[in-house]
Amino acid sequence: MSELCDLAAVELQAKLKARELTATEVLDSFLARIDRVNPFVNAICTLDAEGARARAKVLDASSKPVGPLHGLPIAVKDLEATAGLRTTFGSPIYSDHVPASDALFVARLKSAGAVLLGKTNTPEFGAGSQTFNPVFGRTRNPYDLDKTCGGSSGGAAVAVACGMLPFADGSDLGGSLRNPPAFCNVVGLRPSPGRIPRWPSLDPWDTLNVLGPIARSSSDAALLLSALAGPDPRAPIAIEEEGATFLAPLDRDFRSVRLAYSPDLGSFPVAADVAAVVETAVDELSEMGCEIEQAHPDFRDAAEAFQTLRAHGFALAHAHELAAHRGSMKDTVVWNIEKGLSLSASELADAKRLRGELFERVRVFLDRYEYLILPTTQVAPFDIEQEWVREIDGRPMDSYIDWMKSCFYISVTAHPAMSVPAGFTDQGLPVGLQIVGRYRNERSILELGHALEQIVPAGERRPPLLGGGDPGG
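The chain above was modelled as a monomer; its predicted structure follows.
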């Protein structure tokens, strides 16, 4: 496969910087791929080819590269504001909504030289790890069109997996930067809160919902992160470190590095086919020289803390819409908002206390081990007509997010985490391995992900509709 859109983002960046390629040539390759593939998967929900071509021509006329993302195309998740470009949040309430201004990170993309070509699909208000909504419909998994791609950054993960984008942004509350990449055989990084500042925000001190990159490799994810990270006075929890620090090479010797591996954090079910793939990848880390022990922190009360704080956030963000448009909202969103509105002050206080205790337990644990390794998801991609997983190995799930404890247990700790391709089930479905690192140390996670990519080639296996083969992963 020799199309430009199949090159790594870092390789495209180098060729664009050296003027071996023009932004227009690169854009045309990605637009051609979108035209051929998107009708099958429905990942790009809004396309602005005319605006993207105008932007590419401006970049080609510039005397020097505009920024680190000069000429690289991107589409923004349809939960984030893009000036002059429709932003629906996956809701019929906002089906014709066109923001007047960009979100902070969208402005950073543009100033870094990226070419915005459209929006990626997401579930309604980002609720749930299955990408479907009444505005644009369902986004399909490129490895099996009858399966889900996960969510809520499902459109982004599918677009990257299919080579319709070199990388993409996503957001993560309970797993949305990790679940779709795991289901789509790409990389997704949930950074520490404040690594990528968020503005505007109804709650600028929120540390549960974060922005992050999705890419086909750790190096490509680091490139996108470098353009999005860095302080901003409008974001009170923004980390002061500049994003350019992520541009340094990711090569590192991992001999004698201590890792903790847990198949289930001691409490939740994991489907046998997923567990088998993850364990094989963990064995490869051992062959690389890592010292691996089976261990995990105490995650008691993680579910209570997360569910309470998530519900509070939904009430804060969407109570006004519930009051005015209840009939236009899906039942799981209504449930989450109403749960938040019913919370007492003591319940919120308990959740914050429990979260603080959990953070400390995980922090201390990661003083002993540099990483915690576990499955990204508890199941493989499931039927696209199924809204959420009702049971795993006979154990019923109580709500539409209970089957994602492998992700949201980590979210509530505020520690950074990344999903990397680990391999495939016997049915040819992708499985992700989750790397959890020390607080605010995204670089070390990217380094381990990069090292794993050298010995586990699963990420090189492209979706069948692209004619992708199996390199042994």
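The chain has a mean pLDDT of 97.
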